[in-house]
Design a protein that fits this description.
Helix Hairpins, Chitinase A, domain 3, 2 domains, five-stranded mixed β-sheet, two-stranded parallel ribbon, 3 helices, Transcription elongation factor GreA, transcription regulation, transcription, DNA-binding, RNA polymerase binding
Length: 158
C-alpha cells in the first residue's frame, strides 16, 4: 500500500471535506431521493435519477477520501530542517531569464494549489528541486519549453 505524503494542514482539509460530505451532503441527497420517490413512477422521474447520480458521486468521493486518509503519511514540516530541499520545504526561486522570484512549498498531491504557492511533490518542478540546495540551478521542461531557475532560499515552517 503506497503511502501518501501530506502536511498536517492538507490532512486536516481532507478530514474536513470528509466530515462535510458525511454530515451534510449525504443526508441531503438521501432526503432528495426520498422526496423524488414520492413523485411516483421512477423510470421517468428525472429528479430521482439526478439525486441517485449525485449520491453515487458523493459516495465515490467519501470512499476516495477515506482511502487517502488511511494511506496518509502526515509529515510535520516544522520538525524538518536543513539546507537540502525535501517534502514540505518552502523554496524561493528566481527565473534565470527574467530574474522574477516565485515562492513554492512542496506538498502532497491533494493539497497542491499553484495559485497559493503549493506545488505537488509529483510536479516536474518539484521533482527537479528535491535534493537541491540554496544557490543551485535547475532546468525543468515546461509546456512552454525549458526553464532555468536558481534556488535563492530554502526554509521549513509548519
Amino acid at each position: 500500500m503506497e503511502r501518501l505524503p501530506m502536511t498536517a494542514a492538507g490532512y486536516a482539509r481532507l478530514e474536513k471535506e470528509l466530515k462535510e460530505l458525511k454530515s451534510t451532503a449525504r443526508p441531503a441527497v438521501i432526503q432528495a431521493i426520498a422526496t423524488a420517490r414520492e413523485h411516483g413512477d421512477l423510470s421517468e422521474n428525472a429528479e430521482y435519477h439526478a439525486a441517485k447520480e449525485q449520491q453515487s458521486h458523493i459516495e465515490g468521493r467519501i470512499a476516495e477520501l477515506q482511502d487517502k486518509l488511511g494511506r496518509a503519511e502526515v509529515i510535520d514540516v516544522a520538525s524538518i530542517s536543513g539546507r537540502q530541499i525535501k517534502f514540505g520545504a518552502t523554496i524561493l526561486l528566481a527565473d534565470e531569464d527574467t530574474d522574477e522570484e516565485t515562492s513554492y512549498q512542496i506538498v502532497g498531491e491533494d493539497e497542491s494549489n499553484i495559485e497559493e504557492g503549493r506545488l505537488s511533490i509529483t510536479a516536474p518542478l518539484a521533482r527537479a528541486l528535491i535534493g537541491k540546495e540554496q544557490g543551485d540551478s535547475i532546468e525543468v521542461m515546461t509546456p512552454g519549453g525549458s526553464k532555468a531557475y536558481e534556488v535563492i532560499e530554502v526554509s521549513y515552517s509548519g
